[in-house]
User: Fold this.
Amino acid sequence: MKYFLFLFLLVCFCSCSHTGTTESNGAYSTNPTVKDDVAKKISSANGIILGAIDYKLYENDSLIIDSHEKGKSAECFTMASLEGDTISITGFMGMFAGFGYTIELYRDTCIIRHFSKSDAEIYKLNKNDSLEFGVSVPCKTYSLMLAQKPSFKKGEIVEGIIELTSDEYYEVANGVERKYKMQLKSWFKTQPLESPAAQMIRDHEEEINKK
Assistant:
């Protein structure tokens, strides 16, 4: 049951990650030493690999949350899928509401975005946009370093470090509009790559076989 809930949450978060305009692809880099850095930060629970994240949230240009002040990185969920020549990676904190990042990884380029999602229609990317449950935000700057260049094959594990600073976006709650910006750094290691549909079928078969 936990696998279906996890997959459902992934779909909920990814549903807001493809809205807005698509920016040009950017480059990523590789460095084998990243593998050691990632190993020091990630953890696992109930067979699910958990990434680590440090983040700073700015409201109306003022820093209101700095997770690094606690002296320990927060845990975050990480999910990935492989569709043809594209690896999609989502890292997120929260359940039905929360925030995170998405990576669309191609052979030599990638698209990085920050997202935030709520159970109410409170977000908008631009000041004159309509309010939505979630917002997908382009990045002012980003850095993506992988332990090795992906081969884009089923069963592959991808791990790396992502850093980003998002563009500004807006939240309207209780009639008050606020401007936000996110900075984050995350260490991630994905489960073996396959499409979400294939994973659901495999997990369902495993549950049946246990009975």
Notes: The chain is about 15% helix and 50% strand. Residues 2-210 form one domain.
